[in-house]
Specification:
The protein is an alpha+beta fold. The chain has three helices and 16 strands. The strands form two sheets. Strands 1, 2, 4, 5, 7, 12, 13, 14 and 16 form a nine-stranded antiparallel sheet that branches. The chain has a seven-stranded antiparallel sheet with strand order 3-6-15-8-9-10-11, with no helix packed on it. The radius of gyration is 35 Å and the shape is elongated.
Length: 250
């Protein structure tokens, strides 16, 4: 009897040791565990995408154009007009080409033409020859079509920059023989009711700023920095211009 009992097969302890391993393997292949892992990865990817979008939105936010000056090296000031002389005709070194220009309340103003204007109102002045030229001024007008001209050589020969708050856009036109050709269109550009404009002419290129926001570039096609610039308003839009400064070099 003792031999029979001794001959009965004994349950190996190894069988008990393998059971947790089998359960672990089964759990590792569990559909619920796979779904859980997929959910974890998806959540991490979504969080990463949200962070990237928030960073991009922050890094591309428009600068407050009404309060930030352009980050430019200015050079030597050669022209300055704060229009702080008495009310009356524009005067100074300005040549009135078209439109009713006056000085009022310490600014140069184009008086609105109730019937509208078929050609832009212009008042221009000369600047010294320079390899690099920076022109800055403040414009106060919520109307479209107010802007700056450069390279004026006659009533139908100049380039014109128009600011259009309604469409959040800036356009650059080349006027030749009375016809207009668009050579630059930029947007969206935040244009408040009062804004500072900076024009930098250098390296055969015009770089245009509204406040501290670079709007775009226009090639000068070998013409170099202009010898004249001016104030402009299209369609009889009223506008105020102030604190005009011109710098040359370095």
């Amino acid at each position: 009897m003792a031999d029979a009992a001794a001959s009965q097969p004994q349950v190996s302890d190894a069988g008990h040791d393998d059971a947790p391993q089998r359960r672990s393997l089964l759990l590792g292949r569990s559909p619920l565990r796979v779904i859980f892992r997929v959910a974890q990865v998806t959540l991490l990817l979504w969080a990463a995408v949200v962070l990237v979008e928030r960073y991009n939105a922050t890094s591309t936010q428009s600068v407050d154009a009404s309060s930030q000056p352009a980050d430019l090296v200015l050079g030597d000031e050669v022209v300055a007009d704060a229009f702080d002389r008495g009310d009356g005709p524009l005067g100074g070194d300005w040549q009135v080409v078209t439109g009713n220009w006056v000085i009022a309340d310490g600014s140069a103003q184009i008086v609105e033409d109730p019937a509208g204007a078929l050609v832009p109102a212009l008042a221009v002045t000369d600047v010294p020859a320079a390899e690099r030229l920076v022109i800055q001024m403040t414009i106060d007008s919520p109307k479209d079509g107010v802007g700056v001209v450069y390279g004026y050589t006659g009533p139908g020969e100049f380039n014109r920059i128009g600011f259009n708050p309604t469409f959040a856009a800036v356009g650059v036109e080349q006027i030749r023989n009375g016809g207009a050709e668009t050579i630059g269109r930029f947007g969206p550009v935040g244009i408040p009711a009062t804004y500072e404009v900076s024009l930098e002419f250098a390296r055969d290129e015009l770089q245009l700023w509204v406040g501290n926001q670079v709007v775009g570039q226009v090639a000068l096609d070998g013409a170099g920095a202009p010898r004249s610039f001016g104030l402009s308003s299209a369609a009889g839009s009223p506008a105020k211009f102030d604190d005009v400064r011109v710098y040359v070099g370095p």
